[in-house]
Every structure is written in C-alpha cells, then in structure tokens.
C-alpha cells in the first residue's frame, strides 16, 4: 500500500509535504511511508478518505481498478429550481425593503415637521 500512497500523491499533483498537510499528518509520516520505514496505518487511510473522497479505497488497499471513484455530478435541474426559488425570495425581500424605506422616509419627514413645530 505504501507504493500506492506515493502514486496517489503524484496523481493528485501534490508534494509529499503538501499532501501531509492536507490530510493532517506530519511530513515525517509520509516520508517514512515513502521510504518504507513505516507501513500505511489506519489513521492515514482514514484521513485520505476524509480529505480525498474521490480516492478509491478499494484501489488503495488492493491496487485493482481505478485510483479514483466516479463522483456523481450535480443535479442541474434541482439546482436551477433552487436558484429560481432563491431569486423569487430575493425579489420579495427587495419589495419589503422598498416599503420599509418609504416608511422610514415618511417617519423622518413627520419627525422633522414635529421638531419644527417646537
């Protein structure tokens, strides 16, 4: 598995130290894995899975298949519907704000007129 971690680092376009930082381990841990001093432990595998969900753990353990899993793409129609709903809500809020601004203007005018009467 050590070789696959080193291969993964290269496939991700990372340096050993940047990869270590991204998964939250010391650079020494990755260095020891790359030179064969230590084997890949459960903590490193867990951190890889957490920080790189696109990495196939099956490949990492066995070396078989693709290093990366196919990630599901965004649900474009759902995103468009959500965006339209948010735009509608923003327009409603803008309308309420305009009404509130007019009320503030009227209140300021009334207060100004009242202070002139004093």
Describe the structure.
This protein is an all-alpha fold and 118 residues long. The chain folds into two domains: 2-62, lambda repressor-like DNA-binding domains (434 Repressor (Amino-terminal Domain), Orthogonal Bundle); 73-118. It has six helices and no strands. It has helices at 2-11, 16-23, 27-34, 42-51, 57-62, 76-117. α2 packs across α3 (27-34). The chain is elongated.
User: What is the distance, rounded to the nearest whole angstrom, between the alpha carbons of the first and last residues?
Assistant: 86 Å
Strand content: under 5%
The string of secondary-structure elements, in order, is HHHHHH
Q: Radius of gyration in whole Å, from Cα? A: 29 Å
Provide the domain count: 2
| Topology-level CATH name of the largest domain | 434 Repressor (Amino-terminal Domain)
Number of contiguous helices:
6
**Spatial shape:** elongated
Number of strands: 0
In the predicted model, the low-confidence regions spanning at least 5 consecutive residues are none
CATH architecture of the largest domain: Orthogonal Bundle
SS-based class: mainly alpha
Major β-sheet, in short?
Answer: none
Q: Which CATH top level class of the largest domain fits?
A: Mainly Alpha
The share of residues in helices is over 70%
Map the helices and strands.
Blueprint: H1 2-11, H2 16-23, H3 27-34, H4 42-51, H5 57-62, H6 76-117
Helix pairs in contact: 2-3
Which features does this protein show?
434 Repressor (Amino-terminal Domain); mainly alpha; elongated; 71% helix
């Amino acid at each position: 598995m050590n070789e696959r971690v080193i291969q993964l680092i290269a496939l991700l376009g990372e340096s050993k130290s940047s990869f270590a930082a991204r998964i939250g381990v010391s650079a020494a841990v990755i260095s020891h894995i790359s030179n064969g001093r230590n084997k890949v432990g459960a903590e490193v595998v867990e951190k890889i899975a957490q920080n790189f969900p696109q990495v196939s753990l099956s490949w990492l353990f066995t070396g078989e298949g693709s290093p990366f899993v196919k990630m599901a793409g965004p649900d474009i129609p759902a995103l468009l519907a959500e965006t339209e709903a948010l735009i509608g809500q923003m327009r409603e809020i803008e309308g309420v704000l305009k009404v509130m601004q007019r009320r503030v203007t009227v209140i300021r005018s009334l207060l100004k007129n009242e202070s002139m009467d004093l």
